[in-house]
Amino acid sequence: MLNEREIESCYLGQFIPVHYHHNMLMDQNRMHSFKSAIHYAVRPGARVLELGGGTGVLSFFAAQQASRVYCVEYNPDMVREARRFLAINPNGHRVEVIHADAFDYLPPEPVDVVICEMIHVGMLREKQVEVMESFKRRYLARFGGPLPVFLPEAAIMAAQPLEQEYDFEGFHAPIVQFQETGVVYPGTVELAQPAVYSIMDFSQPVDMQIAWEGSMLIEKAGTLNAMRFITKNVLAVVQEQSATIDWLNHYMTLPLANPVRVQAGDLLRVAFHYRAGGSIPSLQASIRAELVNQHQQMAAFA
Ligand SMILES: C[S@@+](CC[C@H](N)C(=O)[O-])C[C@H]1O[C@@H](n2cnc3c(N)ncnc32)[C@H](O)[C@@H]1O
Known about the structure:
- By secondary structure, this protein is of the alpha+beta class.
- The chain has helices spanning 4-12, 18-26, 28-41, 57-63, 76-87, 128-143, 280-286, 294-301; strands spanning 47-51, 68-73, 95-99, 113-116, 149-151, 154-164, 167-168, 171-172, 177-179, 188-190, 195-201, 209-217, 222-238, 243-248, 251-262, 267-275, 288-291.
- Strands 6, 9, 10, 11, 13, 14 and 15 form a seven-stranded antiparallel beta sheet that branches. A five-stranded parallel beta sheet has the order 3-2-1-4-5, sandwiched between helices.
């Protein structure tokens, strides 16, 4: 019998089935960015903790330099798989795979770097923010400061109004969509520039409630019927080069309940709110997008 937390976890997709991990391993954009960031952040001899290890791949990257890696995973199937894979990879013996809940686990000693990839677009569904907040509180209580370096260090989130095609061979279905970044989709028209609505710095306390209200200047005429959500994860800050190693999640596009005709130069007032780790429908239901009338527009630009 599943308890309440487990039921919610299954519903929200917190525990990703084994076959989905293959997709994550195949995602070169994700893999390459994490490999580079871990290579940069983990110094020779470092102690590393990974929360939500899955196949163990990120712990494996860390183990190439670290002296010890604690890899925590809750799904027993993945614990077995990670142990199997690490046993056949170089330096896998430096990784200890621990079957535990990341909300409870603390390593037996202070660590230099914490890797956590429980990331969904907008920090929805998966418990990245909650797990990191819980970890910081418990770590400081047990070991005192300073906190380890977090990987990712930060996340930047933005929203962008779209006209989105929802016809599938004549079947009209306004439905949540995920799109690869860097691909031009003929059915997608960007009506304005993305507006940044949240910047999370994981080294600081992060609020679980995410709420935004702001305006967007429409650049193209069309029917505004969807909002795209963009999440860029700053995996590491490379200070020597004044650069960052980033990973951009797939775009998530949510249909709007009430489409609006817009013209170039219109000002759109947008508001939404959700809880980090919350469901996609909870965000979708909260989105308000309405045109500011001419009079208000003049005042806004004055
Ligand atoms: C998005 S996957 C990432 C897996 C791996 N780190 C990678 O990058 O390929 C997130 C992993 O976190 C695990 N997970 C989710 N919640 C957890 C928790 N509370 N404690 C430990 N592991 C958890 C999931 O089972 C899943 O394997």
